[in-house]
Amino acid sequence: MIYLLRHGDAEPDQGLGDAARRLTEKGEAQATAAGLAMARLEFDVDTCLASPRVRAFDTAVLACGPLAIPVETVDAIGYDDYDSMELAAGRGDTLIVGHEPDMSMEVARLTGANIKMKKGGLAVIKGGALQALLRPADLAAISA
Fold first, then answer.
1. Most buried residue among 10, 23, 113, 126 by CB atoms closer than 10 A?
2. The CATH number of the domain where 88 resides is what?
3. How many folded domains does the chain comprise?
4. Are 53 and 78 in contact (CB under 8 A)?
5. pLDDT, mean over the chain
């Protein structure tokens, strides 16, 4: 199983560059809701891989708290093309936290589905099929 989570809402560049952009309060709430919803839905996540960009890494940390799993950064998720199946190989069910347009392109590559990931949204992929596409409002409702 592959879970793709787009980072939560982030502040504009404060002059420190795109990679240093932090989550807003809304983004923190989105990330926390994603983790709580995944725990409530009993998603069995073994590994979390995140972009090293601040907004994605912080999203991963907040989402992985309720899942009780550590976050590992992978430069390719933030800066290069990547193959989520390759990254997840041997790691069990994997949560990947990253950015657009990479998230939507990865869903399309793996499943053929033409979607657009919302900030704080989650795609669930199993066996080459899109099992669920949960928007931030869905995750907030599930986590409440």
1. 23
2. 3.40.50.1240
3. 1
4. yes
5. 96
Tokens in use for 128? 């080459």
Helix (H, G, I), strand (E, B) or coil at 108: helix
Q: Does 132 fall in a domain? A: yes
Please report whether residue 103 resides in a domain. yes
Tens of pLDDT, residue by residue over 38-66, are 999 999 999 999 999 999 999 999 999 99
Domain span at residue 125 reads 2-10+20-143
- Is the pTM of the predicted complex or chain greater than 0.85? yes
Radius of gyration of the chain (CA): 14
Smallest Cα–Cα separation from 71: which of 94, 37, 105? 94
Show the tokens assigned to 29.
């709430």
Question: Which H/E stretch holds residue 94?
Answer: strand 94-98
Per the domain annotation, does 125 fall within a domain? yes
35 within domain boundaries: yes
Contact 50, 77 (CB under 8 A): yes
Q: Which two tokens stand for residue 142?
A: 């599930």
Sign of CA dihedral 97, 80, 112, 99: positive
Looking at the DSSP bridge assignments, the partners of residue 125 are: 2, 130
